[in-house]
Structure prediction request, 316 residues.
Amino acid sequence: MQKIYSSSKYKINFMRQKKIAFLLSIMLTIAVITGLFNKGLNLGVDFTGGIVFEIRPEKQYKLSQVREFINTKSTSLGLGEATIQTSGKEDLLIRIATKNTKNQKQISSIIETIKTEIEQKLGSKTEFRKIDFVGPQVGGELISGAIIAVLLSFMGIIIYIWLRFDWQYGIGAFISLLHDGIITVGVYVFSGIEFNITSIAAILTVIGYSVNDSVVIYDRIRENLRKYKNIPLDNLIDLSINDTLSRTILTAATTLICLLALILAGGDVIFGFSFACFIGITFGVYSSIYISAPFLGVIRLKGYNFKNKEILDSSI
Prediction:
């Protein structure tokens, strides 16, 4: 049996837990898909259509009081529930969903009515920094565009990995990225955080990070595949993961620390994006180790002799 040499100080047998990891991922995926169909996403006005106000109040306010009078007024006007977030130190971001399609004249009248209500409650010198209206048709176009953007990113990544490595690596990367995308969507499903256009950016950020991690491990697997022709595949994968583990730990740790700072101090406006990225990237590291790499053993990896099935417990 060929002796294995590793430059890594880590000697962790990751592949010993691969079946448990596969089972965990399947259970999480099923839970997210079930939650998506039963509970659904809390779609923001970017997708459902609605009115957005960004204001700087003249008077001091309590967020609960602002939410109460805005929701009372929006209900009386036949609108949906309002979501209110702080933006910076003084500003408020108010999103009010429109339940039914309304023409421009009706929308203008509704905006003026809400502006008057805000000025009465928060002061006549309240500054309206931004007022936007997103119609249902625009929201539908944004949904279509978001789906196309995610699918194109998946296709581009898979084609890149296929051309750089082999088709087996492309399948492993696809399964891993699909897993990470579903988990990120699950954050929005189970937390109830508003799903808007920045949520699509979070999903794309997660899969971009995940594929970067997978490519590093794949590159080391291909390199070790040339060096060691007669060792069990699980040992070769363990060797490759351990060789790149210090890089994985350092990059993941610095990224997650930055995201944690954004979660704690970034404010409500970017909280959903930061929190989804934090959970998604954490699972992205997990999937690079326990899904994309081990999946190469499920399919017949090109260049590997599958006649040797013995696992060397002492090698890693």
In short: Strands lie at 50-56, 82-87, 91-97, 127-134. The mean pLDDT is 81. The chain has two domains: 14-42+139-298, 50-134. Residues 14-42+139-298 form a domain with the Multidrug efflux transporter AcrB transmembrane fold fold (CATH 1.20.1640.10).
